[in-house]
């Protein structure tokens, strides 16, 4: 089995990927798929095939998952909590009495998984369906009532720690405020009352259609993922429909603007930005942004896409090259009550070469001396595996491109080189190893450990070094997987200074398993399992999992470990340590020099006006984000919205904005100052000065 799993291992599973299948999630959490609709009055029931798959998935995950977890009452409780969150994460549909009635199942899920018993899953979801229909009728009646926003009352937008309503009356009051909050958000966009009512009516008509499209397979996927994700965030069950989407259809959605999408609650969420696409080049759209509306051309009406399926939104966003699409976007770090922003993109065919590494030269001044710093930006670790297999001359790869840039920068007599890995979610492990080899003599780069404890050391066998001068690696919270392997190796060899934010912390490897290979007599497709099977370790023995790579010089960041990255996931595999490999550190960067670099940075943080303002803006923004209570009185809400806009504008200064956009959507050469890149250049200049003393 072990050999079978490893041979299935796809290279892309090394990268930081969307952790859930592309199926939708309603406000109640259920994934959606196409096909026949079901009557809201009919109970959904499991099939005999699903009962077999439940037993098989339980066996596979408990036997071959890296964690080697046991099915017991403790795990059963976690799975049940996960399922409750998937069904009614907002705690707005089920009543407290419903949840209490199902407590009898909390410690029975482990036995049910082994025995192919799906009673608990379907019983709970069918109750949710009934409660949803009750809420739907209430919402329709509420939307008929005239709007009034003069009463001084508030609403807490964060429902995570809230309790389920105890009575129907308490639930009615909760939904009155939910609807009022949504209506007020639309009203603040300068819409008339009639337009607000029309949009709200359409929004909940869409949701009714979405809920009624849910089939038994969707409930089964949601339940199985409640189990799979209890083991770790990157382990999932994909239903047959969503397995097909995951493997085929979502890759097609990269055409047009260059963004990968999935449903998330009321909205469509951006799960990835393709380097080289319009979204990437404009810097206007970011990972985890939520799309609330789509419009065609400069004058087309904005279509509210709340509660839409991902397929339908993809159709709206796609279009002929050169045409314009406008999106209403809610940023992941948007403050409570902040309005969506509208962005304009020009569709185009995405060119592979635009995903590749790029170089530039910046100048910084340190202690009265000017420094030329070469910068190589690597958006992903790419490799033409087909070209490599055929031994084609000049096949595209990260390492070959960077090697060429290094030679060019040496010819330009730069004083040092910064490797910019911000937002690089990973890619080819081979490239991470080979790229490290450009900067070190031959030696180990990363260790890969099986769940059995067997460890393999991956090394760079080439003794030649392309560049032995001063270097820094710039990372942030969204530098993941292969990026972390490279940054960790450079840090362990003391070959360069790591600058920026703590990295993502994804130190695991997944494989896809086609379940039909294990159930050969099943006539129809039964889906796939994406399962974690290996773990990465640095050459010093420390895992990159959970903790990621901690920079030598840590810059102010808008992203906390509690909210973003592997450590924000309750089921993430823990950090641990194995034996170190044998390797020889560089002598150019010792602890004394690193201490000097930190002192110099601390001085700039206290004296440099831009850095001081950056740190202050981030502190203000983080404090503002903690407040999730908004006013439902229009005059107060307008003031809150203006304040939220001011703080969001300040927070946007921390974005990696490097280009303005002209009227065609094409980036112009004029650049805004990139504070992080400038600071990385100054740290490198400090290193050069300290090393020459």
TrEMBL record:
This is Carboxy terminal-processing peptidase. Residues 652-667 have a biased composition (Polar residues). The keyword Secreted does not apply. It is an enzyme of class 3 (hydrolase). InterPro entries: ClpP/crotonase-like_dom_sf, PDZ, PDZ_sf, Peptidase_S41A, Tail-specific_protease, Tail_Prtase_C, TSP_N. It comes from the Bacteria. Keywords: Hydrolase, Protease, Serine protease. Belongs to the peptidase S41A family. Residues 338-556 form the Tail specific protease domain. SMART domains: PDZ, TSPc. Residues 25-45, 633-671 are annotated as: Disordered. Coiled coil: none annotated. CDD domains: cpPDZ_CPP-like, Peptidase_S41_CPP. PANTHER family: CARBOXYL-TERMINAL-PROCESSING PEPTIDASE 3, CHLOROPLASTIC, TAIL-SPECIFIC PROTEASE. Residues 255-333 form the PDZ domain. Residues 634-648 have a biased composition (Basic and acidic residues).
């Amino acid at each position: 089995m072990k050999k079978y799993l490893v041979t299935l291992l796809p290279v892309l599973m090394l990268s930081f990927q969307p952790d859930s299948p592309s199926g939708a999630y309603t406000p109640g959490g259920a994934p959606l798929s196409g096909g026949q609709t079901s009557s809201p009055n009919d109970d959904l029931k499991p099939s005999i095939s699903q009962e077999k798959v439940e037993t098989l998935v339980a066996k596979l995950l408990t036997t071959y998952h890296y964690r080697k977890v046991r099915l017991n009452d403790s795990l059963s409780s976690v799975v049940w909590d996960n399922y409750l969150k998937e069904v009614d994460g907002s705690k707005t549909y089920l009543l407290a009495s419903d949840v209490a009635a199902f407590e009898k199942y909390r410690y029975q899920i482990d036995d049910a998984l082994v025995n192919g018993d799906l009673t608990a899953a379907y019983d709970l979801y069918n109750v949710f369906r009934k409660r949803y229909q009750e809420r739907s009728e209430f919402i329709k009646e509420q939307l008929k009532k005239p709007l009034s926003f003069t009463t001084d009352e508030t609403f807490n937008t964060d429902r995570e720690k809230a309790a389920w309503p105890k009575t129907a009356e308490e639930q009615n009051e909760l939904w009155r405020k939910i609807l009022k909050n949504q209506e007020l958000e639309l009203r603040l966009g300068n819409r008339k009352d009639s337009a607000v009512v029309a949009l709200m009516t359409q929004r909940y008509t869409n949701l009714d259609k979405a809920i009624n499209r849910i089939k038994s397979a969707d409930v089964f996927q949601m339940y199985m993922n409640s189990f799979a994700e209890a083991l770790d965030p990157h382990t999932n069950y994909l239903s047959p429909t969503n397995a097909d989407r995951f493997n085929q259809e979502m890759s097609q959605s990269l055409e047009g603007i260059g963004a990968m999408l999935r449903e998330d609650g009321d909205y469509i969420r951006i799960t990835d930005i393709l380097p080289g696409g319009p979204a990437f080049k404009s810097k206007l759209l970011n990972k985890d942004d939520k799309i609330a509306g789509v419009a065609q051309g400069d004058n087309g009406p904005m279509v509210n896409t709340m509660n839409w399926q991902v397929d339908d939104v993809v159709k709206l966003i796609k279009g002929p090259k050169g045409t314009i699409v406008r999106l209403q976007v809610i940023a992941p770090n948007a403050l409570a009550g902040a309005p969506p922003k509208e962005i304009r993109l020009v569709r185009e065919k995405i060119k592979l070469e635009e995903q590749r590494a790029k170089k530039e030269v910046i100048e910084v001044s340190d202690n009265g001396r000017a420094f030329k710093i070469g910068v190589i930006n690597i958006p992903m670790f790419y490799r033409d595996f087909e070209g490599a297999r055929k031994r084609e001359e000049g096949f595209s790869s990260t390492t070959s491109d960077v090697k060429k840039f290094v030679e060019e920068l040496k010819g330009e007599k730069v004083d040092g080189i910064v490797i910019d890995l911000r937002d690089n979610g990973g890619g080819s492990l081979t490239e991470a190893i080979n790229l490290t080899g450009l900067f070190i003599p031959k030696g180990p780069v990363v260790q890969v450990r099986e769940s059995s404890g067997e460890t393999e050391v991956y090394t760079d066998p080439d003794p030649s070094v392309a560049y032995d001068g001063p270097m820094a690696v710039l990372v942030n919270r969204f530098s993941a997987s292969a990026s972390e392997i490279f940054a960790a190796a450079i840090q362990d060899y003391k070959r360069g200074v790591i600058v920026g934010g703590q990295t993502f912390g994804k130190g695991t490897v997944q494989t896809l398993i086609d379940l039909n290979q294990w159930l050969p007599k099943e006539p129809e497709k039964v889906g796939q399992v994406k399962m974690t099977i290996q773990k990465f370790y640095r050459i010093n023995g420390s895992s990159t999992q959970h903790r990621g790579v901690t920079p030598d010089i840590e810059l102010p960041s808008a992203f906390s470990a509690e909210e973003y990255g592997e450590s924000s996931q309750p089921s993430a595999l823990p950090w641990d340590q194995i034996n170190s490999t044998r390797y020889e550190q560089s002598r150019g960067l010792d602890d004394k020099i690193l201490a000097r670099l930190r002192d110099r940075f601390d001085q700039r943080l206290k004296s440099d006006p831009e850095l001081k303002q950056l740190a202050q803006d981030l502190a203000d923004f983080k404090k503002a984000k903690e407040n999730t209570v908004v006013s439902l009185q229009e005059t107060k809400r307008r003031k809150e919205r203006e304040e939220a806009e001011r703080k969001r504008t300040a927070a946007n200064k921390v974005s990696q904005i490097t280009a303005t956009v002209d009227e065609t959507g094409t980036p112009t050469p004029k650049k805004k100052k990139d504070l992080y890149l400038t600071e990385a250049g100054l740290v490198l200049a400090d290193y050069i000065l300290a090393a020459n003393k």
